[in-house]
Amino acid sequence: MLSTRNITFCLTLVIVLLSACKKGAAPKPSFDIFALGSVSMANISTPAYWKNGQFMSLQAPISANALTNTIALHGTAIYTAGSLTGTNGMARAAYWKNGGLKDVSAGFAASTIKRIAFRGDDTYMFGFAGTSTSTYPVIWKNDVAITLPPIAGIRDYLDLAFSGSDTYLLTNALTTTNTQVAGYVKNGALVKVRDTTSSSDATAMTISGSDVYLCGNGVINSTVTAVYWKNGVRVQLASQGQAVANAITVSGNDVYVAGNNNGATIWKNGQVIFHDSGALSAALSIAVNGTDVYAGGYSHSGIATIWKNGQAMQLPTSMPGESSRINKLVLVMP
């Protein structure tokens, strides 16, 4: 049963999302906000999502031997993906579409799915496969596995994105002196972000036209701090260290980054436009619609939260005592 606080929140969120309406007409939402994430209880985390502030059950057969790493929306379909643990103790790549389970581990001794991306009607799932002692990256296109060729210098792969006919893989790479630096692979070619920092790591990526934006962390004056790069040119986000950049998006000529710096923080073109006073809160995702800036993450009390232009709206869960978080916001226009 929803508490008075959660009922009040749901009403508030609905009002916030309503478009201007004619007098006497029933108000209609101008778009839907999907908040994709997870809920946790007793150290067990399961995927979850909220539509316009209402908690929605995935009804996926998640059990103790299943691990979900990612959740994504494509049209009206909700995808969650990760792995199942087989009788031999090895992980098997699997995903759920609207709760229906699909095992795509055939041909691999061990495998798991980390990210989901879409291009037209095609579904791409990025992950890893291999043996108990070695792994290699794999993309499943419409459930068919494609093993990626090895690229020297890649330390790890983090995400998958498309722009037109180009395919991008977010990575962290190693220099010839074994220094870790942020980078990406475009159509099979590795591009390293090498600037004045001694080392760096990437957390998120977005593509806008021919421009490639990465965000993450760089070591500046011996301190790790939040940064982003546009085509390899670094922008420092925090004047002091220990800030973290978690997500990045571009709207027109403006660059927005979500992260935390002793509390959930949003930067626009390198300047702070919102900072939450809860030191343990974090912004993990960001989306922009016109002049409205939405961020999703969790509050200092561990509750899934949407910030719209800095105003916090905590999301309900199905059971009291559950912690929750938002990993990605998706704005769906009619």
Keywords:
334 residues, mainly beta, four-stranded antiparallel sheet, 1 helix, globular, disordered N terminus
Folded structure, characterized:
InterPro entries: Quinoprotein_ADH-like_sf (IPR011047). This is Bulb-type lectin domain-containing protein. The protein starts with a helix and ends with a strand. The chain is built from 1 helix and 28 strands. With 334 residues, the protein is mostly beta strands. Helices cover 4% and strands 60% of the residues. The strands form 7 sheets. It has a 4-stranded antiparallel sheet with strand order 3-2-1-28, with no helix packed on it. Strand 26 and strand 27 form a beta hairpin.
The major β-sheet equals:
4 strands, antiparallel
Range of strand content: over 45%
Shape: globular
Distance between the termini: 31 Å
Kindly state the number of beta strands: 28
Spell the H/E element sequence. Answer: HEEEEEEEEEEEEEEEEEEEEEEEEEEEE
Task: Give the number of helices.
Answer: 1
User: Numbering strands along the chain, what is their spatial order in the largest sheet?
Assistant: 3-2-1-28
Low-confidence stretches: 1-12, 14-28
Alpha-beta classification: mainly beta
Gyration radius, rounded:
20 Å
